[in-house]
Amino acid sequence: MADHTPHTSQETAAAALPTITVDDVRAAHKMLSGVSRATPLEGSRYLSGLVGGPVHLKCENLQRTGSFKIRGAYVRIAGLSPEEREKGVVAASAGNHAQGVALAASLLDVHSTVFMPVGAPLPKVSATRDYGAEVRLHGHVVDETLAAAEEYARNTGAVFIHPFDHHDIIAGQGTVGLEILEQCPEVRTIVVGIGGGGLAAGIALAVKTLRPDVQVIGVQAAGAACYPPSLAAGRPVAVDGLSTMADGIKVGRPGDVPFGIIEDLVDDVRTVSEDELSSALLLCLERAKMVVEPAGASPVAALLSDPKSFHGPVVAVLSGGNVDPLLLQRILRHGMAAAGRYLSLRLRLTDRPGALANLLGILSVVDANVLDIGHVRTDPRLGLTEVEVELHLETKGPEHCVEVSAALRDAGYLFTE
């Protein structure tokens, strides 16, 4: 990042961090040949129209294990000595990193133990086991899970595989940047989600070294944005009270190694709201036919929030597609509401035959699709002959929502949204 005040107190620590170069990324790219996939670059006509220039999606959601994590995990484990491999590796993760480490270790014939939170989605736990890891469920928050993994490493000698704060991890993730330059040599802007910073740092290092004219823009969820205050302070700063559906970028403190790279090379870090994440995920599903998790949709959310601020051709990195089906159902409903395509209403009817049929008839005339109806008859706030009805409606957009509401008011119904 440009124009940040130097932080003298950090110079000694920064000097001790390993130096990563584009040659490390190139070496990682060779190592990953036949291991990771060169994921496709797909054009998006809709986003291109918004931005006013070509927009492409880098589909890491189609990567092995469903995210970019296999790249860094494989490079990190492949770099271990025979003695270290013999003792195995351990990781802590609620999802993508767990699966990346599990598969990488299996491919390299290294035993892996992965600690996951007790409440981790069952599909992610099952997938991690299927990739060959020994899964241990511990703790209800990631910090507790991480502490358990680190204690296991101390007690057994297993090598702890950090999800983002290691030069081999960053070199592996940087191979995404090399692929982008090869697939879209005319690219002017790359947009990538940021959690701890490993992917953004790797991409920025590779791209800025070879093409300093290309802008690299990072995106964080507003409810879990540790980089803006850290960049302002000139050092990694921990933030509390993280709250976002995008668990893949829900990180409370930047990694020391990626922070230095992002501070120097990433042009801007933006934040997006939960509504913008939901809308982006819905757009990826409907328009691009891509199943993307909220973290993976964050670059698209940034494009939707301020499309004219990006210079095309743009490449948005869809970093992962591992979303729990139950969460996906809630997110899609939230995304539909944020896009004005879902309307919830509460209203009171006289509890008599035909009252509900009359209401549904009005909704049919204005072409509102009823998804769900709930009745409440026993609330003490209701009159003796009243019933409260809760409606969940699918609409065609904000203008249709206004039309539906107006039709109900014209028919004499009083309601709350």
UniProtKB/TrEMBL annotation:
<dbReference type="InterPro" id="IPR036052">
    <property type="entry name" value="TrpB-like_PALP_sf"/>
</dbReference>
<comment type="similarity">
    <text>Belongs to the serine/threonine dehydratase family.</text>
</comment>
<comment type="pathway">
    <text>Amino-acid degradation; L-threonine degradation via propanoate pathway; propanoate from L-threonine: step 1/4.</text>
</comment>
<keyword id="KW-0456">Lyase</keyword>
<dbReference type="InterPro" id="IPR002912">
    <property type="entry name" value="ACT_dom"/>
</dbReference>
<dbReference type="Pfam" id="PF00291">
    <property type="entry name" value="PALP"/>
</dbReference>
<dbReference type="InterPro" id="IPR000634">
    <property type="entry name" value="Ser/Thr_deHydtase_PyrdxlP-BS"/>
</dbReference>
<keyword id="KW-0021">Allosteric enzyme</keyword>
<dbReference type="InterPro" id="IPR044561">
    <property type="entry name" value="ACT_ThrD-II-like"/>
</dbReference>
<dbReference type="InterPro" id="IPR050147">
    <property type="entry name" value="Ser/Thr_Dehydratase"/>
</dbReference>
<dbReference type="InterPro" id="IPR001926">
    <property type="entry name" value="TrpB-like_PALP"/>
</dbReference>
<comment type="subunit">
    <text>In the native structure, TdcB is in a dimeric form, whereas in the TdcB-AMP complex, it exists in a tetrameric form (dimer of dimers).</text>
</comment>
<keyword id="KW-0663">Pyridoxal phosphate</keyword>
<dbReference type="GO" id="GO:0004794">
    <property type="term" value="F:threonine deaminase activity"/>
</dbReference>
<feature type="domain" description="ACT">
    <location>
        <begin position="344"/>
        <end position="417"/>
    </location>
</feature>
<protein>
    <recommendedName>
        <fullName>L-threonine dehydratase catabolic TdcB</fullName>
        <ecNumber>4.3.1.19</ecNumber>
    </recommendedName>
</protein>
<dbReference type="InterPro" id="IPR005789">
    <property type="entry name" value="Thr_deHydtase_catblc"/>
</dbReference>
